Amino acid sequence: MQPLFSTDAIHPRNAFRQWREMVCERLIPIDQQPLHEVPFQGRLDVTSIGPVPISRMAHTAMRTEATPDAIRRHGQPDRLYASMKLSGHDTLQQGDREAVTRTGDFVVIDARPAVCEANTGISLVVDLPRERFEAMLGPSRLFCALPVGADLASTILANTFIQELVRVGDQLTPDAAARMASIGTDLIIASLAERMAQEVPGSIHGNVTVQRAKAYVEANLSDPNLDPPQLAAAMGVSLRRLQELFHERGRHISDYIWERRLEAAARRLADPACAHLSIGMLAYGCGFASQAHFARRFKARHGMAPREYRIASAISGS
Which of 29, 55, 86, 145 makes an SS bond possible with 125, Cβ 3.0 to 4.6 Å? Predict the structure, then answer.
């Protein structure tokens, strides 16, 4: 491998800033922050085996986030990245999955928002073609951020092959390098396929969690204390995880709760069986803490005050 960057000769005050600038130029624009108040150390070596770029990253503990804006502007949707842990351990969150990888494990991620907290360690990052993986394994969301452990023999084989390929890569002819890179890619795919066979796809679990959450909201609309933290606790997941599941489906939890309350209120305002209820009682029954709050939100949503909506519904229904 060829050395690309090292903090060894850089003043500790400037080490992390220069590391971050280099990574953004070499890989993709991402937000990085050191995790501890200690001098940052990092080294990046790179090589290409045939058409496959490989990077070896060694660094002290840090947090990395690929933001939606960075992905939108500079992401490469045709690529996937396999991160193989040579030492240390990472915690990665992408979509509705959280992957903890330790020495000997690997995980594949794609060009979607993600957050990784990495302890001091070394990783090999292999740049891979998405099309080949999806042709064999299906959509990337089925396998990305799924930790592939060193307890699988196929993982040991894939990791060992890639590391040996990096070691002898400069001795290979271009044709041999391309063939060996193809074999290495297939070994990663085979190991990932074995791991997937052990797992109920995360997308199914995510769908079930969201549907349970929606059913809970419907059953508890009248509770004025119903909010995202309470909903997450009722589902038995972290607030952050539940927010990610809703965001994947283009929603915000709080927006969804208010939307359901407003729709329930609109139905009751239009229902002759609820005509005896005052606007205030109807608002409280849909979880609003005050009639004034309800009136503001309702008018913003429907373009008219609740009383006007009730009158208009009665006229149109007569």
Answer: 55
